[in-house]
């Protein structure tokens, strides 16, 4: 039998501790038999949750991230010599930083391969010694229902490289793209306002040129040797196989992702989803449920669940169930171990949002990361039910508000079946 993914073990451990406390307090004597079987529970859920299981080890090993990569062929599938030739290995990697010919920014020192001024790996590592930063971030595709993975990303702030070009004026936007088989049709480009690059608002970490994920060099699939990582944004801003930065006086976005109707200025949303729930449970038995939340730019105050008979009609005048009787779930403590392939499970020395003395998070849950939750709902008569879960962000907005629009990132209220049997 395959070993249980570490993320699920950690999630079970955290949630068992939670359920154990409840049982010890006498509140849930009936839960004990279930708890005793916790290690094998619930197989039907394990199958349903398969794609999540890897994320349950708090950090996701980089090989196990969900992968969103364009390119024919994918850059990381090129033969080794070809990678060497096109700059997809650390030794051959070069980063150019130039002015936009269409909307020129006034820079004194473009960084180009031709002039021998492009940034290479040794130079980046030199900069890293002085400027490297690490931060936790959940990677999520704007269009995906589930996060791709949770990582600690390490890199050099993009602004350090922008300053090297000695910009003078007429600089309003930074575009960047990765290797794309030299085919304009395969170009994948994102962009940011210069202000976001030079300054970090609201305690955010900087935008980085990232070369490590969970303490290990970034692999080809994750965008190595170097990718952009934008802390507060959906995945499409974090361009992989980064090779070119264009400094522009254009005043608006021109991201590849704008085609496809995506909202390219959207910050990550907060949402909740269940992970382990009995698909079938006996009438009258307490119903244990665990899950995770993505903590977006607006933070996370709490997670709530609502278990309704399947026959319940969706209220026409209250499509987000704002008037329903939601039950608060319990947010679980930060994990004791981090997983994700971190060598010796040791976090890098200085991680944004972590206390350097204790190595523990300063606040919990942290924005732009994942939090786990658990709850036990009272037993119900036999029948078919629908479980809903939702988050309330730190500003008090219940999911899917304040921005319910699908193309600015998914955060629909979860709907999943639960069967209660005699
Ligand atoms: N060069 C390049 N960068 C890219 C992409 C791509 O296709 N090409 N996909 C983007 C999208 S849409 C997402 S969601 C993230 C996914 O990151 P991951 O594959 O490391 O999980 O990478 C982004 N960076
Ligand atoms: Mo994406």
TrEMBL record:
An MF annotation (GO) of this entry: molybdopterin cofactor binding
Domain Oxidoreductase molybdopterin-binding, chain residue ranges per copy: 113-249
InterPro entries in UniProt: Mopterin_OxRdtase_euk, OxRdtase_Mopterin-bd_dom, OxRdtase_Mopterin-bd_sf, TAT_signal
A Pfam family the protein falls into: Oxidored_molyb
Protein name: TMAO/DMSO reductase
One example of a Gene Ontology biological process annotation: sulfur compound metabolic process
């Amino acid at each position: 039998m395959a070993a249980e993914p570490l993320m699920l073990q950690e999630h079970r451990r955290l949630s068992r501790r939670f359920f154990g406390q409840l049982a010890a307090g006498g509140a849930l004597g009936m839960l004990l038999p279930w708890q005793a079987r916790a290690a094998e529970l619930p197989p039907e859920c394990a199958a349903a949750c398969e794609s999540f299981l890897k994320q349950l080890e708090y950090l996701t090993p980089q090989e196990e991230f969900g992968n969103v990569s364009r390119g024919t062929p994918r850059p990381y599938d090129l033969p080794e010599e070809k990678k060497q030739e096109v700059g997809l290995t650390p030794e051959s990697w070069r980063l150019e930083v130039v002015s936009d010919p269409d909307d020129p920014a006034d820079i004194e020192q473009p960084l180009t391969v031709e002039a021998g001024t492009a940034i290479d790996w040794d130079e980046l590592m030199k900069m890293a010694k002085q400027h490297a930063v690490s931060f936790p971030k959940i990677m999520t595709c704007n269009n995906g229902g589930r996060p791709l993975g949770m990582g600690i990303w390490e890199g050099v702030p993009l602004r350090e490289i922008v300053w090297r070009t000695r910009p003078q004026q007429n600089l309003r936007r930074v575009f960047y793209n990765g290797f794309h088989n030299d085919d304009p049709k395969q170009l994948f480009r994102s962009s940011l306002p210069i202000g976001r690059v030079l300054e970090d608002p609201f305690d955010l970490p900087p935008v980085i040129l990232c070369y490590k994920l969970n303490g290990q060099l970034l692999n080809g699939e994750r965008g190595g040797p170097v990718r952009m990582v934008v802390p507060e944004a959906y995945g499409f801003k974090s361009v992989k196989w980064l090779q070119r930065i264009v400094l522009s006086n254009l005043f608006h976005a021109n991201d590849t992702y704008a085609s496809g109707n995506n909202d390219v200025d959207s910050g990550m949303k907060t949402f909740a989803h269940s992970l382990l729930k009995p698909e079938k449970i006996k009438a009258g038995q307490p119903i244990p449920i665990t899950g995770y939340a993505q903590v977006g730019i607006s933070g996370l105050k709490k997670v709530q669940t609502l278990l309704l008979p399947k026959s319940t009609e969706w209220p026409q005048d209250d499509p987000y169930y704002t008037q329903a009787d939601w039950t608060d779930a319990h947010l679980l403590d930060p994990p004791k171990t981090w997983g994700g392939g971190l060598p010796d499970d040791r976090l890098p020395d200085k991680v944004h949002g972590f206390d350097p003395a204790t190595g523990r998070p300063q606040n919990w849950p942290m924005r732009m990361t994942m939090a786990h939750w658990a709850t036990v709902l009272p037993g119900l008569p036999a029948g078919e039910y629908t479980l809903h879960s939702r988050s309330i962000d730190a500003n008090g907005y219940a999911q899917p508000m304040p921005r319910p629009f699908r193309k600015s990132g998914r955060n629909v209220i979860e709907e999943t079946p639960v069967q209660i049997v005699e």
